[in-house]
Amino acid sequence: MDTSHTRMRRMLRTSWIAALAAVGLAGCGGSSGGNPSPASPPAATSDAGTLLISLTDADGDFVGYAVDVLSITLQRRGGGTVEVLPAATRIDFAQLTELSDLLAVATLAPGDIVGGKIKLDYSNAEVSVLSGGQVVRAKVVGADGAPLGVTELDIQLPDREHLVISRLRAALLSLDFDLASSHEVDMSQSPPVVKARPYIVAEIDPVAEKDLRMRGALVSADVAGSSYTVDVRPWFRPDGAHGRVTVHTSASTAFEIDGVPSTGAAGLAALAAKPAGTMTVAFGTLSRLDHGFTAEIVHAGDSVSGERVDAIQGNIVSRNGNRLTVKGAFAVNRDKVMRVHRTVLVDVGANTKVLKEGSVGAALDVSALSVGQQIVAFGALAAPATDTTPATFDATNGRVRMMPTSLHGAVNSVVPGQLNLNLRGIDRLGIDAFDFTGTGVTVAQDANPADYEVATGTLGLANVTAGQAASVIGFVRPFGGAPPDFEGRAVIDHRELPTLLGIGWGMSGTTAPFSSMGATGLVLDLHNPSIGERHHMVDGMRVVDLTTLAMSPTLAPPADGRAVYGISVGRDIRLYDSFVEFSSELATKLGGGGHAIALTASGRYEAGTATLYANHIAVLFAPN
């Protein structure tokens, strides 16, 4: 929750993801370095190193995906294991598409980590998808169609790129639950059925700075040293300590404490005046060189969701007077209980305080809250009597924080200072969930999602092309104030948007998924009669049927060579960071009669040559 501020950085760059093997698919790891803040408990010793473990998600077709993470056990070279998760933690992975959440900080003796296990419990999982503009609950089953319970995933790290824990140095293990690659959603059933082959990827020693959310109870603040220390409590845990870390701040760090915004030293002084145990959430980057964490934004006290007041986060899908409708709202009540509600009716009024992230001191009122805007509201939640009836939320004497909002669509037109989009979605919701009535100065000027007007100011638009996909990050114009409909703060053209490709060949599979194979590329055979219902490519929320392409797509390694490839046969995982070795092993498997049943890939797509320069490919074979 409270994650959208990281999107401008995250969507303007890509990072190398090394895969972490799971049931059905595969991954890889790396080494580390840097000077950490000491972890506690256990107390650091002169011989100890520090391991930071974070969780994130590769975006999938889910509004909510909450499961319990029971344990993470790492295996040392030569034997011996270490448990790095102090207590089970419930995580909604669908809320972590924009950043990582610091799960734990462990102090470990030096040595090599060569693998391990992560255990998830689906017994009380809550999974939600969007169907026909409505948020509905889904049923999760395994590959065999049976409901999932406790699922243990193997962490496998290749010998030449294992995780190194060094004396007085920090290592980072970022676990990415790749929802897009590891799930198939059948919307024809009621409720929808999600078939899962749980698949986690990991990033070790990130190529780029890592966006991170760090939640913890305040231990102390050092105003002179521009830092404060917390005991980590990941996600929304109400108690416990998952390690101790120091958060660094700067003159530009934006604070919000009990609803009062401030900046830099003044904000840190206000935090220092709070008692120990005050809950904090910091958002910022983890340095690639020394793994030190510097906060760009800090929330504390009841500015943290679920502290003393209830909170919900989501996008406004319609507005009628002072009642806002939010679908797929992620809610945290003051008892730290979290869940996704299908619909929440949020009441605001003259006494509602409105804040806008990144605009400290802006004079705002509820007129700023319009359709499409992502918000965090603080007030009182009244849970619905049934799952199919709306919840209500009273923010008439509370607060609403406007969050950066992401538009996804295809470009209709572009001129200096403005581009028009045919919207496919806003944040995680499809555009059919929104009703733009009342957004314009007149009825005729209400926002039109098929030609949505985005003011871009002086932003560069040279590479934004009509007919191509694009994303824009910014804020919706005030209700009744359109056109324009949206104020863009960052524009991401089609070249920077990752493309996801998925194809399946049924449960029987095929021995000939490619028309040609080699060290420089794999060409999919789109005439293979075994191709099933899954044969698509998603490019910036634009879904392309692979069978309609003029040329069969080629999967090729990226120019920088940094990628990970996996081949899975049942629980037998093989990992490769070399495309040459990967393609050679694929040829051997297929030549020996192996049947490929599914393939997923992600990377940068060039339409002119129909080439996907993939930094991640996973091929699933039928069990022998």
Amount of helix: under 10%
**Globular, elongated, flat, extended or rod-shaped: what is the shape?**
globular
Number of strands: 43
Please compute the radius of gyration using only Cα atoms: 24 Å
Give the count of helical stretches.
Answer: 4
The SS-based structural class is mainly beta
Q: Number of folding domains? A: 5
Summarize model confidence as the mean pLDDT: 84
Residue share in β-strands = over 45%
Major beta-sheet overview: 12 strands, mixed
Low-confidence stretches: 3-45
- In whole angstroms, the N-to-C terminal distance is 43 Å
Walkthrough of the structure:
The chain is mainly beta and 624 residues long. The protein folds into five domains: 4-208, no CATH class; 212-303, OB fold (Dihydrolipoamide Acetyltransferase, E2P), CATH 2.40.50; 310-403, OB fold (Dihydrolipoamide Acetyltransferase, E2P); 405-493, OB fold (Dihydrolipoamide Acetyltransferase, E2P); 499-621, no CATH class. Helices cover 5% and strands 50% of the residues. It contains four helices and 43 strands. Strands 1, 2, 6, 11, 14, 15, 16, 17, 18, 19, 20 and 21 form a twelve-stranded mixed sheet that branches. Strands 34, 35, 36, 37, 38, 39, 40, 41, 42 and 43 form a ten-stranded mixed sheet that branches. A hairpin with a 6-residue loop joins β12 (183-186) and β13 (193-196). It is globular and about 70 Å long. The two termini are 43 Å apart. The relative contact order is 0.12. The model is unreliable at 3-45 (pLDDT under 50).
